[in-house]
Design goal:
By secondary structure, the protein is mostly helical. It contains 6 helices and 2 strands. A two-stranded antiparallel sheet has the order 1-2.
Length: about 160
């Protein structure tokens, strides 16, 4: 299901120029390049939770202010490469995990409750699925407002042997 959601998301950002990937098409700050960047980082972040390398505490100052947008010196191709690399690493870790019921402690973020939050690896995987699905919906709206492209039409075209 995670791979399926990634594929749907990638249909939404297919064929964009860097300028389009940086463009805001709604009142939101969301851009398509920023969403690609965010989802790559999200997968790596949850991977670090699963493999035990995540920082125990993350403060506001530790967060990248450009983490959800594509800056002028970044490219969509670079973000897509990072997205694919993060997906490969995340999938490999999940496939090799012997116990999806294993518990991991989440980092303490400014928005976290005061007590430690413990989740299973399975719930981490489901959270990544939810993040990709959630932001795929955002991306679909941003893309339609940008140039009228429909993710559903792109998926149907690909299913029929098109591009």
């Amino acid at each position: 299901m995670v791979a399926d959601q990634r594929t749907n998301f990638l249909y939404t950002v297919a064929g964009l120029t860097d300028e389009q990937a940086r463009a805001r098409s709604t009142v939101s700050e969301l851009t398509l390049g920023g969403l690609v960047k965010h989802l790559a980082a999200t997968q790596l972040s949850w991977l670090s939770v699963i493999d035990g390398t995540a920082a125990p505490k993350v403060d506001w100052a530790d967060l990248d202010p450009d983490g959800n947008r594509m800056t002028e010196d970044e490219t969509l191709a670079g973000h897509l490469d990072a997205f694919h690399a993060a997906a490969d690493a995340f999938d490999r870790t999940v496939r090799e995990e012997p116990d999806l019921g294993r518990e991991v402690t989440l980092p303490q973020y400014p928005w976290s409750p005061p007590e430690p939050v413990v989740r299973t690896v399975r719930l981490c995987l489901l959270h990544v699925f939810r993040e990709i699905a959630h932001h795929s919906g955002h991306a679909d709206i941003v893309r339609e407002a940008l140039d009228g492209a429909s993710t559903t039409e792109q998926m149907a075209k690909a299913a029929m042997g098109g591009e």
